[in-house]
Design brief:
By secondary structure, the protein is an alpha+beta fold. The chain is built from 8 helices and 10 strands. The chain has a 5-stranded mixed β-sheet with strand order 6-9-8-7-10, with helices on one face. Strands 2-3-4 form a 3-stranded antiparallel β-sheet, with helices on one face. Strand 3 and strand 4 form a beta hairpin. The protein is elongated and about 60 Å long.
Length: 226
């Protein structure tokens, strides 16, 4: 019986579901949604994964990655390999207009709601809900009632004075995306990572940042989008 070719071996395994990854300075960083944690590979483990990602994995590489629970049996394309448009502009970098009391109240209320929902559901389930919302057909908004992205950006920018968002980028991003969808837009929630290790979450509509200035997200490499 002939041994499978190296290419055949690689096609029999895939990155474990709910495990997203990004390359930062040549280092593979992972977001494990099932466990709700980040981790990175170094040394031999990083070399094994680098070989696998390049399509040059030897049996020893695959065996090691299976033992580390990075790979699992079965063909497939990792969810983390997706096109995420690079942000090219930011509403926060432009002149921020004052927010109406109505929009300010909506921003604060939604951030409160999503703080609760994240604590209750966890990140994985919350992302599933966001992805489901993203694939649903948009509501039939009239152009006269559709609220501009800049208005949403302004509401959450000014809401930070009342509802500080330091270290709360996840609930804030889900809240921004929620309000954007409610007002006729199709936002993308992006999670990025950097080294020395840090993670950040932001919201953009195509290549327009709604939640952050360009400088804030420019040092992060996207690892997941929803």
């Amino acid at each position: 019986m002939t041994r499978p070719a190296i290419e055949d071996l690689a096609s029999m395994v895939t990155v474990r579901p709910n495990l997203h990854f990004a390359w930062v300075c040549g280092t593979p960083i992972f977001l494990d949604l099932s466990a709700g944690r980040y981790f990175l590979l170094s040394g031999n483990a990083a070399a094994h994964f680098t070989a696998f990602a390049a399509g040059q994995a030897m049996p020893a590489d695959i065996k090691s990655l299976l033992q580390l629970n990075i790979l699992v049996d079965g063909p497939g394309i990792p969810e983390s390999r997706q096109d995420i448009p690079s942000a090219r502009s930011s509403y926060i970098d432009a002149a921020i207009a004052p927010a109406s009391m109505t929009m300010l109240a909506r921003a604060i209320a939604l951030q409160t709601v999503h703080s609760f929902l994240l604590a209750r559901r966890g990140l994985s389930k919350t992302l599933d809900v966001a992805k489901a919302a993203q694939t649903r057909p948009g509501f039939p908004y009239r152009s006269s009632t559709k609220i501009d992205e800049a208005v949403v950006a302004s509401a959450f920018f000014h809401a930070q004075r009342i509802f500080p968002s330091a270290n709360k980028c996840l609930p804030r991003s889900f809240a921004i995306a929620d309000l954007l969808r409610r007002t006729g837009h199709r936002p993308t929630i992006v999670i990025g990572v950097q080294l020395p290790f840090a993670a950040h979450c932001w919201v953009q509509c195509e290549d327009r940042l709604v939640s952050d200035p360009l400088e804030r997200v420019g040092t992060f490499v996207p690892i997941l989008a929803a």
